[in-house]
TrEMBL record:
The chain crosses the membrane at residues 276-296. Keywords: Disulfide bond, FAD, Flavoprotein, Membrane, Oxidoreductase, Signal, Transmembrane, Transmembrane helix. It is an enzyme of class 1 (oxidoreductase). This is Sulfhydryl oxidase. InterPro entries: ERV/ALR_sulphydryl_oxid_sf (IPR036774), ERV/ALR_sulphydryl_oxidase (IPR017905), Sulfhydryl_oxidase (IPR039798). Its cofactor is FAD. Its EC number is 1.8.3.2. Pfam families: Evr1_Alr. The lineage of its organism: Eukaryota, Viridiplantae, Streptophyta, Embryophyta, Tracheophyta. It catalyses: 2 R'C(R)SH + O2 = R'C(R)S-S(R)CR' + H2O2. It comes from Aegilops tauschii subsp. strangulata (Goatgrass). It comes from the Eukaryota. Residues 96-198 form the ERV/ALR sulfhydryl oxidase domain.
Length: 310
């Protein structure tokens, strides 16, 4: 749901421009290979294949042509994650108030799930893709700035998925710490889901070496990162997919067709299920739309054209 909603925001606000299109291409490459949903992997690949048709590299279109392209893409928007993407459920991220949690929480879940799926060799390019995606396409300007400042503070390239996963987890906790104070002062938080340091001790006791409270009540934790990382891999990997399948089946009982689609979607989250060309595209993600990704997309478009002629 967060994936489909993100694309909808990008389209509605016409955020794909000459200086942002490559960052979206690189992020889509990551989704093709590592999105936890098979339907979203398939839809992201389809969007990549047709990307140049919708957004030519020069983007020198008249206002009328631009509007026509936007309508064309909007008509295909449901395909990013299939035709039956639920709206407003947010399953793991449903707030007690309509203005809390939801999309921002879902986007965090997506990013965490990507970092535990990648290989070590993809860690730096995935970091760059995530930072650029938030910087260019997240609609909250203040949030974009804060996140990009944290990205910019990283001085040493990532060499492992473990390091990237732990960095994103630590960054998320820093954001929660800041929002805790803001929401308390302004009364804007969700009373049923107050911001907290994560994971709580009850969920991962071995993640904690020790913890204490400061004079102002803030929690300070000496983390055992050797325990935190496998917890993240399990929580945003196997647990996420299995819970997704179970919860949706319960919430959509009676809708056999949708249930079948969701069962298929949750059946596999392994990157090997996606086309080999997608993996080649990801290998070039740290470049400005690398040659391998370009080659893959060209091949896919040629196949599509040959099929249309036949």
């Amino acid at each position: 749901e967060a994936t489909a909603h993100a694309l909808q925001i990008i389209l509605e606000h016409k955020m794909i421009k000459a200086d942002t299109r490559d960052s979206l291409i690189r992020f889509l490459q990551i989704l093709v290979a590592h999105h936890p949903s098979k339907r979203c992997r398939r839809g992201s690949a389809e969007l990549l294949i047709n990307f140049d048709d919708h957004w030519p590299s020069n983007l020198s279109l008249s206002s009328q042509d631009s509007s026509k392209l936007l309508e064309s893409v909007a008509a295909d928007n449901h395909k990013i994650c299939g035709k039956e993407v639920p709206r407003g459920y947010w399953i793991f991220c449903r707030g007690s108030k309509s203005e809390t949690r939801g999309f921002s929480c879902g986007l965090w879940v997506l990013l965490h799930s990507l970092t535990v799926q990648i290989g070590d060799g993809e860690s730096q390019s995935t970091f760059t893709s995530i930072c650029d995606f938030i910087h260019n396409f997240f609609i909250c300007e203040e949030c974009r700035k804060h996140f990009y400042d944290m990205c910019s503070s990283v001085s040493v390239p990532f060499k492992s998925a473990r390091d990237l996963s732990l960095w994103l987890w630590s960054t998320h906790n820093k954001v929660n710490e800041r929002l805790m104070k803001e929401e308390k002062d302004m009364g804007t938080g969700d009373p049923s889901f107050p911001k907290a340091i994560w994971p709580p001790k009850a969920l991962c006791p071995s993640c904690y070496r020790s913890s204490s409270r400061t004079s102002d009540g803030a929690l300070q934790v000496d983390w055992n990162e050797d325990e935190v990382f496998p917890f993240l891999v399990n929580y945003y990997g196997k647990t996420l997919v299995s819970s997704y399948k179970e919860t949706y089946m319960e919430s959509l009982q009676g809708r056999t067709q949708v249930g079948a689609a969701l069962a298929d979607d949750a059946s596999s989250s392994h990157a090997a299920r996606v086309p080999i060309g997608a993996a080649l595209g990801v290998a070039a993600a740290s470049c400005t739309f690398g040659a391998l990704a370009c080659f893959w997309r060209t091949q896919q478009k040629n196949r599509k054209q040959r099929k249309n002629w036949n």
